[in-house]
Amino acid sequence: MILTKDLIPDKPHQSLCGKCDKCIEHCPTNAIVEPFVIQSDLCIAYHTIENRDKTIPNKIEKNLDGWVAGCDICQDVCPWNKSVPFNNNYETTPKEWIKNLNIECLNWDDKTWKENLQGTTLKRIKPWMWKRNIQANLKNKETKI
Ligand code: SF4
Ligand code: SF4
């Protein structure tokens, strides 16, 4: 966007974390290497959503623990997120198939994946990546998908 008008910038954002370090403490892969710094190649969310390699690295795979599309642990444990009111808006509510994801999804063809992913940001995860992520979880026999 090109403007001819001078804009007055906001004040820089202040950290609200105080002495909390819950996200660092609870990250299963120690991906938050220091406050506000995530090492992406250690992050489950990166590997399940962005990594286009055919396999997930072993050190990540053994920590998947059921995560197939992203990982929300650092968000779940953050006290600030607990103060956000529950939102049951249809557009931001996970679809039923995602809530009931199971190994039958491995048999879906690309057309079925495309239909189910229609209108969701999870389209970023390609059908072959969903299958890779599910299979990576299944290698850990105690994981329930
Ligand atoms: S998304 Fe998961 S793996 Fe990535 S930094 Fe957060 S807790 Fe760690
Ligand atoms: S869990 Fe939230 S409040 Fe605590 S350190 Fe992480 S981002 Fe800050």
Folded structure, characterized:
The chain has 145 residues and is mainly α. The chain has one domain. The chain has helices spanning 22-26, 44-49, 58-61, 73-76, 79-82, 96-99, 110-117, 127-138; strands at residues 32-34, 37-38. It has a two-stranded antiparallel ribbon. Strand 1 and strand 2 (37-38) form a beta hairpin. The chain is globular, with a radius of gyration of 18 Å. One iron/sulfur cluster binds at residues 27, 29, 31-32, 38, 43-45, 71, 73-74.
| Structure ligands | iron/sulfur cluster
What's the average pLDDT? 92
What helical percentage do the residues reach?
25-40%
Which H/E pattern describes the elements?
HEEHHHHHHH
Ordered list of secondary-structure elements with their pairings:
Blueprint: H1 22-26, E1 32-34, E2 37-38, H2 44-49, H3 58-61, H4 73-76, H5 79-82, H6 96-99, H7 110-117, H8 127-138
Antiparallel strand pairs: 1-2
Brief characterization of the structure:
The protein has 145 residues and is mainly alpha-helical.
Name the descriptors.
binds iron/sulfur cluster; 145 residues; 2 strands; globular; 32% helix; mainly alpha
